[in-house]
């Protein structure tokens, strides 16, 4: 059984973490499959929106503790090397999600723990069921966070809140996640799939290349000076203005009709 499922429906690709018996906990197989599939989707221009979700009732319970436990009998240097390889693999996935030139939506329910928190931070938008709950949790097994959590959390929630989330590892609910800015919307659990699909369809019909440039501008903004960011905006606007979608958008506005974007 594949640890990650890929379904492509029109311009929408859905990645489903598929280990529901272990709350979709991350092991080596899932890490490799996530890396391979995100690489494929990053380069697939026919896909204009990506949805990331979990099979069953939970999004992801973090790393697979049973998998970690199996490695405890290894010498310390071997265990360190194994973890370096595993974390390196999942970090390629985080990088691809962030730079993917199309919108990525996290659709989460149930447990969102450990690397699951890192994953939703790497996505552009996140919808959460009202029954979902969150915890960074790494401190409870005696390790520091990975997956970009220590990069994303201070930027999303501020340093003090990030410290509390990371050092205490306390569980909080979807409403608190919304207040903190970890998710964009909280919906009834029964409506999560429909609301996710509605949002994905809206984004998949949009100006995909422009979304990709906008992602890059926002993600790079915190490391830019104002002058650098203004130049980046100028370059991206000019590049967008040469696209077919710009011409369609302007013509549609003047004609007072809805634009029909093709994504380039």
UniProtKB/TrEMBL annotation:
Keywords: Isomerase. It is an enzyme of class 5 (isomerase). The lineage of its organism: unclassified sequences, metagenomes, ecological metagenomes. The keyword Cell inner membrane does not apply. The keyword Lipid metabolism does not apply. GO terms for molecular function: isomerase activity. Its EC number is 5.3.3.18. CDD domains: crotonase-like. This is 1,2-epoxyphenylacetyl-CoA isomerase. It comes from mine drainage metagenome. InterPro entries: ClpP/crotonase-like_dom_sf, Enoyl-CoA_hydra/iso, Enoyl-CoA_hydra_C. It holds the Pfam family ECH_1.
């Amino acid at each position: 059984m594949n640890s990650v499922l890929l379904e492509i429906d029109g311009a929408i690709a859905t990645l489903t973490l598929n280990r529901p018996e272990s709350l979709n906990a991350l092991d080596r197989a899932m890490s490799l499959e996530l890396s391979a599939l995100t690489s494929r989707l990053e380069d697939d221009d026919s896909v204009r929106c990506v949805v990331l979700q979990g099979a069953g009732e939970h999004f992801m319970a973090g790393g697979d503790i049973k998998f970690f436990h199996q490695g405890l009998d290894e010498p310390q240097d071997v265990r360190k090397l194994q973890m370096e390889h595993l974390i390196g693999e999942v970090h390629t996935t985080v990088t691809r999600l962030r730079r993917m030139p199309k919108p990525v939506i996290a659709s989460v329910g149930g447990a969102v723990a450990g690397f699951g928190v890192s994953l939703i931070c790497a996505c552009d938008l996140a919808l959460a069921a009202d029954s979902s709950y969150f915890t960074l949790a790494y401190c409870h097994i005696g390790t520091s966070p990975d997956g970009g959590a220590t990069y994303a959390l201070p930027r999303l929630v501020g340093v003090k809140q990030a410290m509390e989330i990371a050092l205490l590892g306390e569980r909080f609910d979807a409403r608190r996640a919304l207040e903190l800015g970890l998710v964009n919307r909280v919906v009834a659990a029964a409506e999560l799939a429909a609301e996710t699909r509605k949002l994905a369809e809206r984004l998949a019909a949009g100006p995909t290349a422009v979304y990709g440039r906008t992602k890059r501008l926002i993600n790079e903004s915190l490391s830019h000076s104002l002058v650098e960011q203004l130049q980046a905006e100028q370059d991206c606007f000019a590049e967008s203005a040469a696209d077919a979608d710009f011409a369609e958008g302007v013509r549609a506005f003047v004609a007072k009709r809805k634009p029909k974007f093709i994504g380039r």
